[in-house]
Amino acid sequence: MAVADGLLVLLRAGAHHGYQLKAEFEERTAGTWPLNTGQVYTTLDRLVRDGFVEAVDEPDETDARRRPYRLTELGRERAAKWLAQVDGGLEPPRDDLTMRVLLAYDEDGPDEARRVIDAQRQGLLERLRSLRLAQRTVHEEERDDPRRRMAADSLAVRTEAELRWLDLCDERIQRTGKT
Amino acid sequence: MAVADGLLVLLRAGAHHGYQLKAEFEERTAGTWPLNTGQVYTTLDRLVRDGFVEAVDEPDETDARRRPYRLTELGRERAAKWLAQVDGGLEPPRDDLTMRVLLAYDEDGPDEARRVIDAQRQGLLERLRSLRLAQRTVHEEERDDPRRRMAADSLAVRTEAELRWLDLCDERIQRTGKT
DNA sequence: CGACACATGTAACACGTTACATGATTTG
DNA sequence: CAAATCATGTAACGTGTTACATGTGTCG
To answer: For residue B169, which of B113, B124, B126 has the smallest C-alpha distance?
Structure first.
């Protein structure tokens, strides 16, 4: 649903056609979130079906191929609501890292969990190094693009959080301590 | 795919039937990751189809309803590989929070982005409070279950990371500073 | 026996991804 | 004109979610 809401946000600025939405979406995300063209059109279809978006009556004059869409009142409300919304409340995390550690825990004593945690830590540290290296090797214009920097920050901050979590898991396991 | 890999990990300990897999999966994740029964069976079908799992020849004697499955050699390899694997390399983050901030940026000057960031920050702080409150109100046995604590930690650490990221975004926007 | 937990499924839908098909317009 | 870009779509598949259907075993 994330993509659908994103398109609604873009449509707040005025009518767009599908290809244009794809291009603008990618520009706004600094090329870090490529969209599939097909997905744009099927998503638009669903948005039309559900009343968030409608086709513009008089098609584009300069290019007959273009089929612009605009927000309905409902769509405008949804876009505003989505921007302000905070998702993922108290529901437990459902990601591979958490699942790996939880499932490895107590498989055969704490050893298996330790092995998994160590392997993940190595991999994440390696990822952090790569991220920092990549950040240093980009061209200046790109490095100064705030959107690109924010996207990069997001990755780095999340990776650091995962490392911190692994440390916490280690503590918990030691405290339970059989070994 | 996460669930499929999780089932493979559980099957390393020996043959299980579908219902049993669901129950054990939920127990191992301390009830934080409920599985839909239907999903278990369709996932098992796909795993059989792809050669990671096979039906046990002689069905369970004590209960004719049960249809136990076991790992194939291929499945055992996949489980081991998955446990050691680190996912999400250098691909940019694709989550709602990142998308909201990036799309809100430069919508109409930095103001819209600021509003979105502030709203998200408020919501995330509220979530952190709820998490800590919830942690304090659980019963003792649950609070001492390491799996439950790890799951709770995971949520908290991630939320803190998101808050840190929002602060970084604020900095970047100020530095670009139009106001 | 009747209720409830155990156990296996099917059907329909939402969303995302990949690949492909098909034209129109612009530009060298 | 030919090639590249613009523009709109369809088809197939993987994964997850919800809801429903159906039957067997156990226990009060």
So the answer is: B113
